[in-house]
């Protein structure tokens, strides 16, 4: 054996400030649970190690907290040849109050997928965090990424675990979009609060403004969109949702707050830069001065 | 009837046993280059890795018995992910990980009959070469804080000597890879290593989010070819890693 170059200490390094949640407080070594071969699911491991930190596993509130807790609103997703674009407005509401005007509800799930949430913001964001770690954890342990369906199914389980909370009025519903390498297409999955998983064709929307957004998407969608056009369709649909739903925020030109738009293609997840989306949003607002209802579809 | 064996003898026997096991395997080298930390293993297997990602800025390299270091790797991934989830991604450090590995290896060494026949490197890439951290852990739980380069495994002395002769601070990726391959060839006078029989990965500080990536055989060939054809102006030529978006293609 060669002699190490640096200092050599037996046992632990003794510098203060190590923030270790996960070691045995008596011996400092990894607890046995960490070295059991077990599962490659982070959620299952967390459930065994520290079950109270799993979303949906805590005690249920005795009564519904009502409108006092921030809710996230509208999310849209549009498929196009070779990928999918997902976008969300920036508003969170607590009853009639705007709780947050620049909340982000669209996230990178992993390199080839995106996730967005509508419903109780706090629970939703926690679910997204857990889902992100779940995918990365599997990838690192197994040396391969999950299939798109595998990811969608894991998410369904997480949504189902929140059913108790949903029954108390703290529902959260995600929208999942991924790039399918085998088929070279984008795929969109929606969920219901009971964990039902549904694959959607072409486009979909969730959240309080989703009805209006979907009407808009229906008229604007076509099967040969480019990434930029799909992003434009999303921004138009969010504008229409904000037009009729008070809980959905439109582009805030004064503050420079624009929807979060992300594209997932064979190049991976890419969030469009703020000035890119800003330019699109400005042109949409501009056009609406002439035609408040947005682009008109041909009658036949 | 059990014989009395003095503690000194017992520890020495265990250490000899572990060293013997480790020296049978092939070597792994870890070295710093201008954009991060390079890991090179003499390992033709595509399935069983000796080099792995632990977290955003942290990677793991090991020699010795596969099932034993794989067990430590999986535990390390759990440790890192649970800390990152419960605190923040920035709170997962190579120092913390090296610490729990040291405790685990130390306890196994003293308390069980059979010590782990492994040697590990836990490395974290920093904002620049001065803040890179490389920890080397041995079977008994000792930790050494290394700078520049590390060699482990069979014939580690010969490999380390070759690294010492060839290593330069701030080398390019191609330059560092060539030094590493030369060093691994020093294991055996007739050993010639091709791209296919190498497992190569980097922690590249210029990437975003997850800095670990494996290099494909094609990329390894390119890099080795680059250095062979000319030693001239290799500065920015290796600045673009292959298909930057894909996380872990192996």
UniProtKB/TrEMBL annotation, chain B:
Region described as Disordered: 224-250
InterPro entries (alphabetical): Ntn_hydrolases_N (IPR029055), Proteasome_alpha (IPR050115), Proteasome_alpha-type (IPR023332), Proteasome_asu_bac (IPR022296), Proteasome_sua/b (IPR001353)
Biased composition (Low complexity): 230-243
The UniProt record lists the keyword Hydrolase: yes
GO MF annotations, alphabetized: threonine-type endopeptidase activity
GO CC field: cytoplasm; proteasome core complex, alpha-subunit complex
Listed Gene3D superfamilies: Glutamine Phosphoribosylpyrophosphate, subunit 1, domain 1 (3.60.20.10)
Pathway: Protein degradation; proteasomal Pup-dependent pathway
Alphabetic keyword roster: Cytoplasm, Hydrolase, Proteasome
Entry superkingdom: Bacteria
Any matching Pfam family: Proteasome
Keyword Secreted: no
Gene Ontology BP terms: modification-dependent protein catabolic process; proteasomal protein catabolic process
Record's subcellular location: Cytoplasm
Activity regulation, per record: The formation of the proteasomal ATPase ARC-20S proteasome complex, likely via the docking of the C-termini of ARC into the intersubunit pockets in the alpha-rings, may trigger opening of the gate for substrate entry. Interconversion between the open-gate and close-gate conformations leads to a dynamic regulation of the 20S proteasome proteolysis activity.
Described purpose of this protein according to its UniProt entry: Component of the proteasome core, a large protease complex with broad specificity involved in protein degradation.
Sequence similarity: Belongs to the peptidase T1A family.
NCBIfam families referenced in this protein's UniProt entry, alphabetically: 20S_bact_alpha (TIGR03691)
Assembly, per entry: The 20S proteasome core is composed of 14 alpha and 14 beta subunits that assemble into four stacked heptameric rings, resulting in a barrel-shaped structure. The two inner rings, each composed of seven catalytic beta subunits, are sandwiched by two outer rings, each composed of seven alpha subunits. The catalytic chamber with the active sites is on the inside of the barrel. Has a gated structure, the ends of the cylinder being occluded by the N-termini of the alpha-subunits. Is capped by the proteasome-associated ATPase, ARC.
Protein name, as recorded: Proteasome subunit alpha
Organism: Actinomadura litoris
Lineage: Bacteria, Bacillati, Actinomycetota, Actinomycetes, Streptosporangiales
